[in-house]
Automatic annotation (TrEMBL):
Name this polypeptide is given: FAD/NAD(P)-binding domain-containing protein
UniProt key word Transferase: no
Keywords: Oxidoreductase
Keyword flag Cytoplasm: no
Database matches in PANTHER family: FLAVIN-BINDING MONOOXYGENASE-LIKE PROTEIN (AFU_ORTHOLOGUE AFUA_4G09220), MONOOXYGENASE, PUTATIVE-RELATED
Protein source organism: Fibroporia radiculosa
InterPro entries according to UniProt: Auxin_biosynth/cation_transpt, FAD/NAD-bd_sf, NTF2-like_dom_sf
GO molecular function: flavin adenine dinucleotide binding; monooxygenase activity
Length: 611
């Protein structure tokens, strides 16, 4: 678990003594030889790998991996997201699945030696193969052993396409000219007057748009219903200072990357415009100002979905699949209940209701929370000369985007591999291993940010270095928040331009502010809660029947294997799906979700290999 660190120097001192969990050269008892023939090593390993698979020699395959090696599969062998760690688990998985899936036609692709750290090196190889129903890709990482034999530390297999059902892009796009018919055709396509879509998508943010585009290009009719009057309003009307802290190369959307002139960190209002443009350019079917009011599953698996339009009319759809694209928490703000709220004579609001610091010039503001939204809003207040205090309830992970992002997202940076390659490289590492590597980058980032962190420590700001000192990315996988990727507010805290309080918890509101458990008080005209959102399952259960809701598994956080729970695949109820995540997750996993729906529609979806 994340714990409060006394100071950055003590963290860095203790970090130097941590024993590596990764297959370092020292741990393996080897060194890299200067005459290493990378291509030959990879080719010989891959030849044995493909031969053993062709002959169903499971012990032979397992023997090509380290005893504590990993195999991560996304759909192609399991119709699930599964991670198998250790020879026994890998062997059981292969014995169960190879006879069913029948992988074949293995072809080795590009190979390279990668050395992310001086003591850590592996040969990375890409490969392609097929199953009876799918076209697939894979990635392996080979490390040297003391015997001189190179073995796989990780193997990754991923479903790319379905045989006979390619995406309608590139050479598969429509080559026929359209003279004077396009406008009418689009109006008819969007209206769904005498027909129902196969898939109804609830929510028109990036997750809904991405999966709609994927489904469209697989030939699956779909309709997005969006409660807002414009696409992008989820970003357009958040607080004015909101800006993405992920770099542009990490955030591209399917089929249509951002232009090369796009800023590295996208302002929220600019992203809102892009989402609207994307929906139009990709010709997605969207009903705006439309709210889903009732979702019921019929016998046989189909769904009845009632929606209410802006004019008050109701339309009832009968669809094969429902995709909940509601985002983290479904946009439902989490507001703590604090005694005495009715006594407070000032304004209480959630960060989702906040517009601009200009709204509160001349007032005293207390922000409850100390993660991204709280810092963004506090920094905006400080720049406008507003008296603002950040109330920190618990410790926060801090890194600067300047020092952190090039290290955390080095596969997604200017001059690195194309995004589709970076996606496969990133996902080819099991999440638990990503966490181990993140421990390395967290140390490097803390060293680079040392002066700022020491300044925060001096003013009493409580910080930590992530779950097991692994930085922010694992926190995103497990809780979706709890960190701030600094773009300037931390220095304002150090300089006293943003005041800080964290010596006790809130006891109650008073008429003029907040009283704390240690007896201290803060005067406030405005108390702003930057306290995040409700869980994703809360939003779903508001729409589905109690019977359906009781069958749903948990959403987000990790399974014991280290896979994300509930998103992008089986949710516990047939043909009910949940699409969520940041822009990168939505880009990559929207195809996984669309391929599952397409496979079901075409009758080729196999049996899930569930834990």
């Amino acid at each position: 678990m994340a714990t409060v660190t006394t100071d950055v120097q003590s963290f860095l001192s203790s970090a130097d003594s941590v024993k590596p969990a990764l297959p370092t050269l020292d741990k393996l008892g080897v060194s890299l030889q200067p005459d290493l023939d990378v291509q030959k090593v990879a080719a010989e390993w891959f030849r044995a790998f493909s031969q053993h698979i062709s002959s169903s020699n499971v012990p032979g395959i397992v023997g090509l991996l380290l005893e504590d090696g990993w195999w991560r599969d996304q759909l192609v062998l399991t119709w699930e997201f599964r991670t198998f760690h250790g020879a026994d688990k890998v062997q059981k998985f292969l014995e169960d699945r190879l006879p069913v899936v029948k992988p074949a036609s293995f072809k080795l692709g590009t190979v390279s030696l990668t050395q992310p750290y001086p003591d850590l090196a592996w040969i990375v190889g890409f490969f392609d193969f097929e199953t009876e129903v799918g076209v697939a890709s894979g990635v392996f990482r080979l490390v040297p052993t003391s015997s001189g034999v190179w073995k796989a530390f990780t193997v990754y297999t991923n479903l790319e396409d379905l045989k006979g059902f390619p995406e309608k892009i590139g050479p598969n796009r429509d080559f026929q000219p359209n003279h004077g018919k396009w406008v009418t055709q689009r109006e008819q396509e969007k209206a769904f007057v005498d027909r129902d879509p196969a898939v109804l998508i609830i929510g028109g943010g990036q997750s809904g748009l991405d999966v709609a585009a994927r489904l469209k290009h697989l030939g699956i009719s779909n309709l997005i219903v969006e409660s807002q009057p414009r696409v992008g309003n989820q970003w357009r009307y958040r607080y004015e200072a909101l800006c993405l802290h992920d770099p542009v190369w990490y955030d591209h959307m399917p089929y249509m990357p951002f232009p090369p002139s796009w800023p590295v960190y996208t302002p929220a209002q600019k992203l809102a415009g892009w989402l609207e443009y994307y929906a139009e350019a990709m010709e997605l079917n969207i009903w705006l100002s439309t709210t889903a009011t009732r979702i019921e599953q019929l016998e046989g698996g189909k769904w009845t979905v009632a929606v209410q339009r802006e004019d008050g009319s109701e339309r009832v759809f009968h669809v094969d699949h429902v995709v909940m694209a509601l985002g983290f928490g479904g946009g439902l703000p989490k507001m703590p209940t604090v005694p005495g709220q009715e006594e407070f004579q000032g304004q209480i609001l959630h960060s989702t209701e906040h517009g601009s610091a200009r709204d509160h010039i001349g007032k005293k503001v207390v922000i409850v929370g100390a993660a991204t939204s709280a810092h963004d809003i506090a920094g905006d207040y400080a720049e406008h000369g507003v008296d603002v205090t950040l109330f920190q309830r618990s410790s926060t992970y801090i890194m600067t985007t300047k020092e952190g992002m090039p290290r955390v997202f080095r596969d997604y940076w200017e001059g690195a591999a194309p995004t589709d390659i970076a996606d496969r490289l990133s996902n080819s590492l099991p999440i638990k291993l990503q966490k181990e590597i993140a421990k390395r980058s967290t140390i490097a980032i803390a060293r680079a940010d040392k002066e700022l962190l020491e300044g925060l420590h001096k003013v009493g700001f409580k910080y930590h270095f992530g779950v097991d000192d692994s930085g922010f990315l694992h926190m995103a996988f497990t809780r979706g928040g709890g960190y701030y990727l600094d773009v300037g507010t931390c220095q304002k805290i150090v300089d006293g331009k943003v005041k800080l309080k964290n010596d006790s918890q809130i006891e109650r509101f008073t008429k003029t502010g907040l009283k704390f458990t240690n007896g201290s008080e803060l005067e406030a005209d405005v108390v702003l809660f930057a306290t995040g959102f409700e869980g994703a399952d809360t939003a779903i259960k508001k729409l589905v029947s109690p019977e359906v809701g009781s069958k749903l598994g948990p959403i987000w956080d990790l399974t014991p294997e280290g896979e994300e729970r509930g998103a992008w695949r089986w949710l516990g109820v047939p043909n009910l799906w949940f699409m969520m995540g940041n822009l990168a997750m939505c880009r990559f996993h929207s195809k996984h979700l669309a391929l599952q729906i397409k496979a079901i529609q075409e009758g080729i979806y196999g049996q899930r290999y569930a834990p």
